[in-house]
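Lab meeting minutes (informal)
Scribe: AK
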Amino acid sequence: MNIFIYDKTFEGLLTAVFDAYNRKTFPDLLLSAGDALPLFYEESFTVITDEEKAGRVWRGLQKKLSSSALSSLTWCWLSELPEVGMLLFRYIRKAIDSPRSIETNFSDPDVLELSRIWKRVDWERLRMVQFVRFQKAADGTFFAAFEPQHNALPLVVNHFKDRFADQKWLIYDMKRRYGYYYDLQTVEEVTFDDESSTSHLITGMLDETLMDKDEKLFQRLWKTYFKSITIKERLNPRKHKQDMPVRYWKYITEKQK
């Protein structure tokens, strides 16, 4: 068994592909530093992430795959599934070695599995668009917290930039502890050194002392509207939970008491 150890970045994965072809040795397993090594293996090789090497692999893939297939590779990477690194490595190797495009060859188990993962990430993206709820802070910034199962936040930034181009906003991923801030001109990725001093980065909800003076009223009006359009005779809790999974409720205004 051959093992490659890399930094668990997408650029690191592409570098691993380059090194594998250069060494003419391909990994059976991809690990990161600190992972437990299997009991028996023949060789381990540490990949040093190199932007030039990664770029060469990516440009090679551009000759083999359509733009949508290339996009699906990065989307699948955002799934953060434990097996996705090795799965993408095998897919990329097949794409490079095949005389024709493999992207629609769903008889190949790796192609089929990546298409399934892409759908799961895309579904998470759609849920973010549907279920993100903004709260207006006293300084005029609109704050929203979310906890996506997959790392879908980068996929919705352009949507919110276009949709709320005239408002400052911050969308924060509570699970991965980072977010994106829009200042009416540009969007920047942000993290916070001391989240313990910022309660809304822990709870996902603005404290009343940080809210705009009308925000609490707007929230009450929204909850009232939500209740008024509910037809009790047609309530279907099971269907409701399918359409709006319970794990999102703690950040959704109309679900707060």
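Next up, CB showed the second protein from the same session:
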Amino acid sequence: MSESVIAELEGRLRKAMLASDVDVLDALLADDLTFVDATGKVWSKADDLNAHRYGVQRIERLEIKEQTVRVYEKSAVTLTHASLSGQFGGVPLSGNLRYTRMWVETESGWRIVAAHCSVLAF
């Protein structure tokens, strides 16, 4: 698998996050996803989908500042610096974040199995 395929999937993920497109997110996230957010809270796939589905999380701007992709046979790791704004639980948020995502090639395609997010100080 090439880096460009994973970069394209990351682009689909970005668009789905902006649109809260639960169908696309459902297709990109593994059923056993583990996501650690910037506060240290652990999210499941259902948690993430429901945050989008019910408007708990609204991302209004998500600008990719930098992204690297490393592919290893049937897995890949992405490291993304993003600037975003929106709201979470009705509270406005904005900032610069660093995401690390682990993609794995499954029988049904490439899926995110693990992710972590950190807030960048400046």
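CB comment: Strands lie at 29-36, 42-43, 57-72, 75-88, 91-106, 109-119.
No objections, moving on.
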